[in-house]
Amino acid sequence: MKSINQWQAEDYDNQLAFVSEYGKSLISWLRPQVGEYILDLGCGTGDLTHEISLLGAEVTGMDASSDMIARAKQKFPQLEFMEADGEHFHTERAYDAVFSNAALHWMRNSSDVVDCVWNALKPGGRFVAEFGGQGNVQIIVKAVEEVLERHTGINAAERNPWYFPTIGQYSRILENRGFMVRQAYHYDRPTKLADGEDGIAGWLTHFGDDYFKGVNPEQVKEWCQEISEIVKPKLWKNDAIYADYKRLRIEAFKPENQV
Ligand code: BEZ
């Protein structure tokens, strides 16, 4: 899983608050019950962990970033948080549900993640997740690659850090591990970026490091301007850039007779 230590936990709470806001609707798929043990995988600064706890479940937040976990503990000292990598974690207890919002697209070794989730669940437990599905931020990705390739000649697609599967691809991974897929939904969710005309530069500052490795900040700024010019005709509406987010939402469960 990508280390997100370089993300500022405070920025995540301020400019990226939409991540948790949108995630609230995913809780309606989770339907947490009082007293259930739930693991929030890729919890960031803990807002959704907290929301789930308010419904009476015993929730543990997990994230690979020590900064995010530190901030989550500071905001919600009454909750349990742990630092662990989503592709290689092991839990002491078995959970009734594993929940994950906007995190799995950073975990390219999806079979390893699914193995860890399986091992963390009780028989009959459920896995409810939403993340980037196939075609997610494609207009932005294509523009980044076009600009990088024009200036450097590299094959920028090789730097793409994300995993955006189709329903079929992800369901196959789940089913190969033994999960039953109960629901899967791929949908468009245009997402308004902060900062008006500078929305793309801001978004790439948070998420685009892998593309700009070794490039000096002044250069990155210029290239972001070019990227912005390419995407604006397609993504600008009224007063802002709306990133072309596409979500994959799934619910799967571990059959009762499985350990
Ligand atoms: C997403 O939530 O879809 C996303 C976030 C950061 C980078 C790429 C995709």
Automatic annotation (TrEMBL):
InterPro entries the UniProt entry points to: Methyltransf_25, SAM-dependent_MTases_sf
Keyword tags: Methyltransferase, Transferase
Molecular function GO terms recorded: methyltransferase activity
The keyword Iron is assigned to this record: no
Gene3D superfamilies: Vaccinia Virus protein VP39
Domain Methyltransferase: 38-125
GO biological process: methylation
Matches recorded under Pfam families: Methyltransf_25
Protein name as it appears in the record: Methyltransferase type 11
Organism whose genome encodes this protein: Paenibacillus silvae
